[in-house]
## 1
Amino acid sequence: MENQSNERKYVAQIELILEAFKDVEVYPLDWEKEPEGAQYLYRAGVVLIRDEDLGRVIELFEGGRPAEGGIGGVTRLLLPERVPEQAPEDRSPTQRFLRYADLRLGRGVVTPEHLFYVCPSVSPCPATEPEEVPPGIPPDPVLPTPFLSAGAADGRGVKVVVLDVGWSDAPAAYWLNDVTGDPENAFDGSGRIRPYAGHGTFIAGVMRAIARNVEIVVKSYFTTAGAIWEFDLAQALDEVLDLAPDIISLSAGTRTRHNLAPLGLDVFVKTRLDRINGLTLVAAAGNESTRDYFWPAAFPEVVGVGALADNGRDRASYSNFGGWVDVYAPGTGLVNAFLTGDYQCTEPPYSGQVRSFQGMARWSGTSFATPLVAGLIAGRMSVTGESAKQASDALLAYALTQPEPGTGPVLRAGDALASLP
């Protein structure tokens, strides 16, 4: 990963999250002085463990209290105030507990509760903030009329649930008719657009531009600075299964301690996602320009989506990469539905600049390559009758037939039926 610790934009984004979450800590604590900057964000005074390990962990820690909520199979443990004397020294009590557990029980038995964040928006490594576009500009990409005619790959009969910041009705965007969801708190006390607002609406717009009749429900979970705790995200993913989606689209994630799979989401994937026939989770690969695993996109059971540069061939400079990324898709300079109102930039070098939006914006990030791929899966399903898992497997196989040198397998708008005879 490139050294971002001295970049004003990077520091500003970390500080926004620290302001919003009072119990968050950054690893390493001296992240501003470290060559690689922050590795991950986590909750102070809390760890996650599998239910079957609860007894021996409490005994090892000489205390601790399980918290309520979450999903069966994983426990959020509130740490005791006293750290065992045998624990290694560390300025963070939570890190002392974690290192002690590593030494006595092995890595991965006890993990921090990571903070997951939407990408971009107010995340530690956003691609861009939304940019103004001229009035009347159409979506980009958008499929030409023949792709959207009756019987085409329009996503009809397919349901996608988007976990994001919520939904803002955009009546001027005709392609968003009948999209539903939880209303987001999009404006601050001064009437300006919040830094993370409009993210879910833009995502729905990208998906509808690819699959015009797909059913989309946008849920509001990332309501605090565009972020959510791991334990709560696992519970949210479990809850949306009640809506019986074919596809779950998640433009959020995080890096983790030791690059290990986040425990809360690992339990969800193994005991929930894998047990529902045909269900597919599509997730953003992240915008940190690193090959480190970014979860949940890095799970082999999840379709992890990276972003292409604006030339449609190269990997976008901000996109994460590596063998764990399943496919790359257009994600740079996309134009789609946004909010109407003024937005004050929070990221250097544009901090303080006010931008005025009229229902559309230009935005970049793996966040937006993700719904494009979800739309392709939905479009294929509506023609072939395949499940989301079958359709995604077929599209990923096709992407392998058109790799870009130095990037990897690629899908583009219009590829939904490309592999069919």
## 2
Amino acid sequence: MADTQQVDPKAERKAAKLAHQISAFAKAHGGAEGQVAHIGERGARIVLVGEDGGWGDLVAPSTEIAQQAVEKAGITVHESFDGEFAAKVQTGPYEWKRMAGIQIGG
């Protein structure tokens, strides 16, 4: 019997768009790795870390779409954002100033 799983065209387009953005990030940063985290009703966050230490994130409308996007992009996906993966992130003056501002009420 044939597999009759229905495909949502809108979800497919969103996953393809996210995959394109992930691939562009990876190309700009010499490769990339990622992590998908459920963020409630908002969907899922895809955190990207480039080989050069650059980082960014994208939000997908669901965890399923986020998983499809990272699979289409072909990047390595980690279960959690810790350890060696987190240590690859390089922060600059902007991030440090922003973090300090949050700590002192700014």
## 3
Amino acid sequence: MTTVLVIVLILVLVGVIPAWPHSREWGYMPSGIVGIIVLVLLVLFLAGRI
């Protein structure tokens, strides 16, 4: 379960990089949201909930 979660998070982090012309206008919002999700998952992991 943890390995699958790490793989999905890596794919999502790569996916939010503003590399395409239409996504450059979005700024840092998508990666900021993913960062918050990663932070919450890290806290849950350290607390032993995952």
